[in-house]
Write a structure and sequence with these properties.
The structure holds two protein chains of two kinds. Chain A is α/β, with parallel strands linked by helices. Chain A has helices at residues 11-16, 34-42, 83-93, 106-115, 127-131, 143-150; strands at 2-6, 22-31, 54-56, 61-65, 68-73, 97-100, 118-122, 134-141, 152-167. Chain A is 27% helix and 35% strand. By secondary structure, chain B is α+β, with helices and mostly antiparallel strands. Chain B is 39% helix and 21% strand. The longest helix of chain B is centred in the N-terminal third of the chain and has 20 residues, at 35-54. Classes of the chains: A alpha/beta, B alpha+beta. At the A-B interface, helix 5, helix 6 and strand 9 of A face helix 3 of B.
């Protein structure tokens, strides 16, 4: 099945998604890699509210034109690097859609089930296609501390996809060796 | 004559256009795949097309800049070439642009211009003549993180080598952005095997090792890895690798080193020749 979701997505909408389904999302998403995961888990207060946004494992290539940031290329990064943080991250920030590549482990799989969350795979390396689905760069956090790649970028996206639901909230996964 | 500009164009070509052999291999894979696997390859091909048309890096991970340079002994700019490559990388970072990918392992500081200790990584070779030939091989880390070195016991023989490659490529799963190209370096020492595994990646897809025995092993590994069903992006399918290339060195009697370098589907390679009058072409 193919689904087009407006974010924030409700619990019922997430439950409808099954491994193998194709997904497009419209709304707000934010990027976070290892360093951003670590920092956001440590901070008691963060400058934006991630709940209702999709979490995008991505270190984008950005360009500043005057005062405005533009996305040049922004495909997903390898999700397994975030495995050590993800269950706590999902819980703390109420994440219900993750966009990444390569799949995640057992701990995340359990957290997806427990928190009604899905892990979706955007085609790795398809950076230009992803960039063109970003309508606007809404904000960036921790750019000075973390740099372009590791910073948290807030994107407004339209019909971002196609993603494949690779690990659903019912415990099913398309990956062979990662659970 | 502006060799530095030539280096920028070389990097631009590598980052924005896939070599024809890779595109053809992806198109062939698209024909045999179905469902989710087909969607992945279709998305890749669309992305490749768009990157070329808009001259943007096809992947946001523009990689570590690696150059294989073969300098003719009568090439007049040998003493300047190292600095010209570095200057070209710094300019390409701003102009194309490239993602800043050089981080000091101790301080965590990003150099922001893709320059740093030993990076760009330049491998020097020499030949006769008065031209310099450069191949750019920007290497992303999703696939690079799946590299492996095995110091096998010689008694396991070539069967052991094949099993090791098979096991490690299957373990890499979707992490290396398959359909991938696998470079295998066998023999020498630890560093030689790893180096040869990178050299193996320079060979176009479909080109077999000249040694028939090794060519057969390459074909066997392609078949066995693809039978694993890992598929494009690890989501299941028939195409896990587009090719396997093996290079070998003679080994010490007591060791059997095997180096594995995996290249993602974005098998980015571009070539440049610089002539003795300073004129250049990027191919």
């Amino acid at each position: 099945m193919e689904y087009h979701l407006k974010l924030p997505a409700g619990k019922d909408e997430i439950k409808k998604l099954h491994a193998g389904d194709v997904l497009f999302v419209t709304g707000k998403i934010f990027t976070a890699r290892d360093e951003a995961h670590s920092l956001m888990l440590k901070e008691s207060k963060i400058p934006f509210n991630p709940s209702g946004m999709a979490l995008f494992h991505c270190g984008p290539l950005m360009k500043k034109n005057g005062k405005k940031w533009k996305v040049v290329s922004a495909g997903p990064t390898t999700s397994s690097r975030m495995e050590i943080f993800e269950d706590k991250f999902i819980e703390k920030f109420g994440i219900n859609i993750i966009i990444g590549k390569g799949g995640m482990g057992e701990k995340t799989k359990n957290a997806l089930k427990k928190n009604t969350c899905v892990y979706t795979s955007f085609t790795g390396g398809a950076g230009v296609l992803a960039a063109d689905k970003v309508e606007e760069v809404l904000d960036v956090y921790w750019l000075d501390e973390l740099g372009m790649t590791e910073a948290v970028w807030l994107f407004k996206v339209k019909e971002f996809g196609p993603m494949v639901v690779a690990m659903d909230s019912h415990g099913k996964s398309l990956y062979k060796d990662q659970g | 004559m502006n060799i530095e500009q030539g280096i920028v164009e070389l990097i631009r070509k590598a980052e924005t256009e896939l070599p024809k052999d890779v595109i053809n291999a992806l198109k062939k894979a698209c024909k045999i795949e179905k469902g989710v696997a087909k969607t992945q390859i279709e998305t890749i091909l669309k992305n490749v097309d768009l990157a070329k048309k808009t001259q943007r890096p096809m992947c946001q991970d523009t990689g570590i800049q690696i150059f294989f340079v073969t300098v003719g002994v009568n090439f007049p700019y040998t003493n300047k070439l190292n600095d010209l490559i570095i200057a070209g990388v710094k300019r390409a970072t701003k102009e194309i642009p490239l993602r800043p990918n050089t981080v000091d392992p101790f301080t965590g500081k990003n150099h922001k211009d893709n320059f740093g200790d030993h990076i760009p990584y330049i491998i020097w070779n020499f030949s006769s003549g008065s031209d310099a030939n450069i191949t750019a091989l920007p290497k992303g880390s999703g696939s690079e993180n799946m590299s492996k070195l095995g110091m096998l016991k010689p008694s396991v023989g070539i069967k052991g080598v094949k099993d090791f490659v098979l096991k490690e490529v299957i373990n890499a799963g979707g992490n290396s952005c398959p359909p991938a190209v696998v470079g295998v370096g066998i023999g020498g020492g630890a560093d030689i095997a790893m180096h040869l595994s990178k050299v193996a990646l320079l060979r176009p897809i479909g080109n077999r090792n000249k040694d028939k025995k090794i060519a057969l092993i390459e074909e066997e590994l392609i078949k066995r890895i693809n039978e694993s069903g890992i598929g494009p992006m690890g989501l299941g399918g028939k195409t896990t690798v587009l090719d396997v290339h093996i290079e070998k060195a003679h080994r010490h009697p007591a060791s059997l080193p095997v180096g594995i370098s995996i290249q993602c589907w974005a098998d980015r390679r571009a070539q440049m020749v610089i002539h003795k009058d300073g004129s250049w072409e990027v191919k």
